[in-house]
Amino acid sequence: MAAAMFRCIECNQDANELHRDYKNGILKITICESCKKPVDKYIEYDPVIILIDAILCKIQAFRHILYNTEINIHWKLCVFCLLCEAYLRWSLLQDSEPSSDPADIIRYTKEWDFYAMFGQAALELAMFITGVLGFLWLIQWLRGHQLQTRFLLKALLLSSYGKVLLIPAVIWEHDYSPLCFSLIKIFVLTSNSQAIRVILNCGRRLSLMAIAVGLLLETCVTRSLQNLHWRAEDIMPLQ
Ligand SMILES: [Zn+2]
To answer: How far is it, in rounded angstroms, from Cα 175 to Cα 182?
Structure first.
C-alpha cells in the first residue's frame, strides 16, 4: 500500500503502518502507541469475517474499511443500489396499477416507469446526502473544524450497501415484504450513522441528528414528487 496515513481501529489514533516486514518472511502487526493494541487486526482476517463485523455495525470494521483499505467502488455501488431501489419501486408500482389497457402495456414494456423510479430514487438519495452533509458542515463550522466532505460522501455511499438486500426481498415476495423493506431501511440508516461516527469521531447523538436531518429533507422531496404526480394526473387524466 502506498505511503498513506492509517488509523488504529480501536482508538482512532493515526498510524504510519499496519505491519512491519522483517525480510525473512516475518511480518509483525504494528502495535498502537496509544492503546497498545494491534493497529488493525483485520489485516489478518478473512474478508468474510470483516463483512460480518461490518454487517454487525462494529465501528472497528468500519474504521478498517474506510481508513486502512483502498476500496473505491462507492460510485459503482451507489448506482447498483439505486437500480435495486428503482426495481423495488417499479415492481410495487406495477402491482398497484394492474391494467389491461394496451397503452399501459406498451408503457410497461418500454419500462419508462423504471427510469422514472431510478430518477426519483437518485433525487431522494441526493437530498438525503445534502441534508446530512449540510448539517454536519454547519456543526463543524461552528466548532471551527473543517468537514472532510469527499471522504464523508464516500463513507455514506459505501455504508448504504444494505440496499442490495432489496433485490432478494422483492424476488422472494411474501406477506412480510413491507416489514423487510422497513428493516432494510433501518439497517442502512444504522450503517450510515456508524460511518458518520467513524469519519467525524463523534458520538452517537450527533450522527443520529445528521441522519434525521437527511431523512427530513428526503421526505420533503418524496412528498413534493407525490404532489406533482397527483397534480399531473388531475391535469392529464389517464385515457
Ligand atoms: Zn489505538
So the answer is: 13
Q: How many residues does the chain have?
A: 239
In this structure, what C-alpha cell is assigned to residue 110? 418500454
From ligand 1's centre to the CA of 207, what distance in Å? 22
- Predicted structure pTM score: 0.84
| Cα 217 to ligand 1 centroid, rounded to whole Å | 37
User: Using CA atoms, how far apart are residues 188 and 3, in angstroms rounded to an integer?
Assistant: 32
pLDDT tens string 177-232: 788 888 999 999 999 999 999 999 888 999 999 999 999 999 998 888 888 877 76
- Distance from residue 30's CA to the centre of ligand 1 (Å): 10
pLDDT tens, position by position, 79-131: 999 998 888 888 877 766 655 565 555 555 557 788 888 999 999 999 999 99
